[in-house]
Design goal:
Blueprint: E1 2-7, E2 16-17, E3 27-30, H1 35-46, E4 50-55, H2 63-73, E5 77-81, H3 88-101, E6 106-110, H4 112-116, H5 118-124, E7 130-132, H6 137-145, E8 156-160, E9 163-166, E10 189-194, E11 202-211, E12 214-215, H7 226-229, E13 235-236, H8 239-251, E14 254-259, H9 268-280, E15 286-291, H10 301-306, E16 309-317, H11 321-326, H12 333-345, E17 350-357, H13 364-376, E18 381-386, E19 388-389, H14 394-401, E20 415-416, H15 417-420, H16 427-448, H17 450-463, H18 466-474, H19 486-489, H20 492-506, H21 511-535, E21 541-542
Parallel strand pairs: 1-4, 1-5, 3-10, 5-6, 6-7, 11-14, 14-15, 15-16, 16-17, 17-18
Antiparallel strand pairs: 2-21, 7-8, 8-9, 10-11, 12-13, 19-20
Length: 544
């Protein structure tokens, strides 16, 4: 059978460098490759099916192009994959456009959001035939065998005689080595390695991709839906299988890879085996990971550095132990300090800290303590994002009990906690404290960690114009503005927060308004971009 797989994105999760094409002619994207549909494509092809992939980060394949391809090629199934609440409105619009163009093609949704809200998604978006829950590899193969009668396909939510049917869940597959490597070559995009888009800085122009070496995280952080999606389990590929894929990537010209594991630092023996395998194979490919600060594998940081691990990202969240306990992080400030220092001492080039602000029960003093704490840590980069609540998380369940959200009417909406929780600081206060905190943090880094700061800026200056690097440094000191210039509207560094807010606001719209608003937004964005191109003033970061 012929299957189309589409990765649906909202604009906050990718950007385009001003020079949008690589030497091979591929569009270049700042962001993570769609490893989900790439993995499914390789599984389908190994089983004898044909697969065509689309990534909505590609400006050459907007909705109209995808719909036209479906009308011409008549796939048996079109799968729309998306991760987040804010991607859901875009997925609904595309599904309805596909259904209007072809009344017979089978449509499926997949991804974390769809899995956790399957029945509600099926009721709200009835154009979709199937909502696929959990791991997709074997599920998709089974579904293709039963497109007309999916009653026996575990993990599928569908509708029969006007009633939503949730087939029994699919057991978690623990033998992950059985699946082939993701099909990266069939999608004609080249991905640029950059920091998270809140820190829009290019790390490398080498060929970049992502890998998943494990799935899940068993820790109970109240804001995270990963333990819910993975049923509190952690599953891993074997060390040799991971090393084999790294060798495959290096042989195919990739220079860097990021592991999208929820918690890579969980099993020391496996980590040690991966590092030894990389060294034994003489691999030079650089890699990065995310992990918890309380990992018992920190003695392996030197081995990871020798095996070319360049980036370690920690979920630190707060510099207040009281807030960490409220979030059920089950970590201490001392553990944070130890982990960051151990990583830097071991020679990890870039250590990043994820922080949240606007947490429940957080005070101004707590926020100030967070920035003071971050200043004194030998972090290279950092991000401070407003905490959000998603359906399915323990925090969402708490908010339902407190009457702050409704499972019946709010399940598909995106909320910053500070917008709905009276125990959070007001948004204006959060932004003011954050701006002041960033000023102090930057000054502390420049004066107390000058060599570390110099090395990081030198890396950024290899790939970015001086003015963009200067802007990243100066932004916290600029104070409030009346508005962005037309050129700045196209700058990812300036526009990220506004784009994120816009994507969030789409989740609040009724379905009958959604299409008109998205279309008006698209037309306005194209108009602004054309004006900038006419003036030949395109900055480094261009959004689509």
């Amino acid at each position: 059978m012929l299957v189309f797989l589409v990765h649906v994105r909202d604009p906050q999760f990718y950007a385009h460098p001003a020079k949008t094409r690589a030497q091979n002619g591929n569009i270049r994207v700042m962001g993570f490759p769609p490893i989900g549909i790439m993995s499914l494509s390789s599984v389908l092809k190994e089983a004898g099916h044909d697969c065509v992939m689309f990534d909505q980060a590609n400006p050459d394949t907007p909705n109209d192009v995808i719909v036209d391809a479906i009308k011409k090629q008549k796939p048996a199934l079109v799968g729309l994959s998306f991760l987040s609440t804010t991607s859901y409105p875009y997925a609904k619009i595309l599904a309805r456009q596909i259904r209007a163009a072809d009344s017979t093609v089978k449509l499926a949704f997949g991804g974390v959001f769809a899995s956790l809200n399957a029945g509600l998604v099926k009721l709200q978006c009835q154009e979709v035939d199937f909502v696929c829950r959990g791991d997709g590899e074997q599920l998709l193969l089974d579904l293709l065998d039963h497109l007309e009668d999916p009653g026996t396909v575990a993990g599928v939510t569908w509708m029969k005689d006007g009633q939503v049917i949730n087939n029994p869940g699919r057991p978690m597959e623990r033998h992950l080595d059985q699946w082939p490597f993701p099909d990266r070559e069939s999608l004609k995009l080249d991905f640029v390695e950059s920091m998270p888009l809140d820190v829009p800085a290019v790390l490398s122009m080498e060929r970049f991709t992502t890998m998943q070496t494990s799935r899940g995280c068993p820790w109970p952080c109240v804001f995270c839906d990963i333990p819910v999606f993975n049923e509190g389990k952690w599953r891993a590929r074997s060390a040799q299988h991971v090393v084999n894929e790294l060798k495959y990537l290096e042989d195919h010209g990739y220079g860097s890879v990021y592991f999208v594991d929820d918690h890579f630092l969980l099993q020391p023996k496996r980590i040690e085996a991966i590092c030894n395998g990389v060294s034994d194979a003489g691999l030079k490919i650089q890699w990065g990971i995310e992990g918890r600060v309380d990992s018992v594998a920190q003695h392996l940081f030197p081995a990871m550095a020798r095996a070319h691990c360049r980036t370690v990202m920690f979920g630190i969240e707060s510099g207040s132990q009281r807030v960490l306990d409220r979030l059920k992080k089950e970590q201490t400030l001392a553990e944070v300090t130890t982990a960051v220092k151990n990583a830097k001492k071991a020679g990890i080039e870039i250590v990043h800290g994820f922080f949240t602000v606007g947490n429940p029960d957080e005070t101004v003093r707590d926020m100030q303590a967070t920035f003071d704490f971050a200043s004194k840590l030998p972090l290279d980069t950092f991000g401070f994002n407003r905490l959000c609540v998603y359906r399915g998380t323990p925090l969402w369940q708490e908010y339902v009990k407190r009457g702050l959200v409704s499972d019946a009417t709010d399940w598909y909406k995106y909320f910053k906690c500070s917008e709905i929780d009276p125990t959070c600081l007001p948004g204006e206060v959060i932004n003011d404290v954050r701006q002041q905190g960033l000023k102090k943090l930057f000054l502390y880094k420049l004066t107390h960690y000058p060599l570390q700061t110099y090395r990081l800026l030198r890396r950024f200056l290899r790939f970015m114009p001086v003015r963009d690097v200067a802007y990243l440094i100066a932004k916290p000191f600029m104070g409030k503005k009346t508005g962005a210039t037309k050129a700045e509207v196209l700058s990812r560094a300036v526009e990220h927060a506004e784009t994120k807010d816009a994507a969030a606001q789409f989740t609040q719209l009724s379905d009958d308004m959604l299409h008109d608003v998205l279309e008006a937004s698209r037309v306005e964005r194209l108009r602004i971009q054309q004006e900038a191109e006419d003036r030949r003033e395109l900055p480094m970061f261009q959004t689509r």
